[in-house]
Amino acid sequence: MEGHNQSLPIMFYMIGFSNHPDLQPLFFALFLVIYVAALLGNSLITTIIANDSRLHTPMYFFLINLSILDICCTTAAIPMVLQILLSMEKTIPFSECIIQLCIFTSALSTELMLLTLMGFDRYVAICIPLHYSTIMSKRTCILLAAVVWILGFINSFLQTELILKLTFCQHNILDHFFCEIPSLLNVACSDTFINNVVVIVADIFFGMGCFLLTVISYTYIISAILRIRSADKKKKAFSTCASHLTVVTLYFGGVIYTYVRPAFSNNPEADKVMSAVYAFVSPVLNPVIYSLRNIEVINAVKKLLGRNITPKR
């Protein structure tokens, strides 16, 4: 198909769930529950940390940022998915698709860097605890958070700008359930070589680079923990890292698979599954993982609930 004049209205037909028409109501209910759970869970984590001065530490500061990013991820993707599931036409205009792509890509790349920062924070806390307050000062944490948000936005802006330079046919079939870079490049009617090169460079930096730095941090962390003689201290050190390590494994695994593998092969069904892991499942699991495995958060929840339940005199 040859590209049409870009002044014509461009529509994307989402066929992510078309193979299972009888399950559309079930998919709608499932995604609605996921969205509500992600919003409530991440909002609760943010409220708990903000209201408990004992949690005003670098680790929980980064966790608030993570919760905000998870809300951005799900809000960028799921409401549109719900709309498509209810719609008979299963279409999304080009402009709405680009807005979704821009927000989602920005949140995605920012979260990858933020998870790396959280790994570095745990490295400093466990491997060089005497210098922790100096290295991870309030000013430094705010600066680091600002840098990763800005870099994430720059990456999103660049990727979106390159997508806008492509020519798309008037009618496009997207074998996905929301607008993401790999699926859009597959339906472009013009050459996507530059886009693919920029995506691979971004993957190396944001995906594999951040993952490598996280692995290095945890190599030192695990080595330091194994040298601790006290069983209680060793258990406490492992517990503070286990939550973050679980989230990192889920998130990086899905992102690297979805964005790096398309350069070598194409499997739309696997792409949809892996996209769902980091776009929908991870934002829901993050509050659960960090709260159930973290005694400080559990105590803060009890304190908050006790304060609200206890009648005022």
Automatic annotation (TrEMBL):
Signal peptide boundaries: none
Chief place of localization: membrane
Pfam families the record matches: 7tm_4
CC terms in the record's Gene Ontology section: plasma membrane
One GO MF term attached to the UniProt entry: G protein-coupled receptor activity
Entry-linked InterPro entries: GPCR_Rhodpsn (IPR000276), GPCR_Rhodpsn_7TM (IPR017452), Olfact_rcpt (IPR000725), Olfactory_GPCR (IPR050516)
Keyword terms: Cell membrane, G-protein coupled receptor, Membrane, Olfaction, Receptor, Sensory transduction, Transducer, Transmembrane, Transmembrane helix
Membrane topology note: Multi-pass membrane protein
Transmembrane segments: 26-50, 62-86, 98-120, 141-158, 204-226, 238-260, 272-292
Protein family: Belongs to the G-protein coupled receptor 1 family.
Name of the protein: Olfactory receptor
Source organism phylogeny: Eukaryota, Metazoa, Chordata, Craniata, Vertebrata
Encoding gene (name): LOC117348138
